[in-house]
Amino acid sequence: MTERDRLADLETRQRKLTEDLETARRALRGKYAAMVNDVPIETLTEREFRELLTQAIRVGGSAALTTLKKLPPVT
Q1: Could you give the angle at which helices 61-69 and 46-59 cross, rounded to 10 degrees?
Q2: Whole-number Cα distances in Å, 22 to 27, 29, 45, 57, 60
Q3: Quick check: 75 pLDDT over 80?
Q4: What does the buried/exposed string (b/e) look like for 8-39 if buried means 16 or more CB atoms within 10 Å of the residue's CB?
Q5: Cβ within 8 Å of residue 44, ≥6 positions away
Q6: Share above pLDDT 70 across residues of the chain, in percent, rounded to a whole number
Q7: What pLDDT does residue 55 have?
Q8: What is the full DSSP assignment across 10-75?
Q9: What is the arithmetic mean of pLDDT over 52-71?
Q10: Region 7-16: what's the mean pLDDT?
């Protein structure tokens, strides 16, 4: 196999891996999106919901949960 053939083969593999990665990412996001159906999110605005998720992802799930659990219950 020439270097040119090897490069073409590697590029093909890379494209396939990228497609597989995107497929897996979409499947996982779809699974998480389906979970939202079971959560009463209608009390939040769209902006609050997006910000809540963005910040939780930014700091990490464990850190976000630990912090939120320390908050007093809403009365």
Answers
A1: 110
A2: 9, 10, 29, 19, 22
A3: no
A4: eeeeeeeeeeeeeeeeeeeeeeeeeeeeeeee
A5: 52
A6: 100
A7: 96
A8: HHHHHHHHHHHHHHHHHHHHHHHHHHGGGS-GGGS-HHHHHHHHHHHHHH-HHHHHHHHHTSPPP-
A9: 95
A10: 98
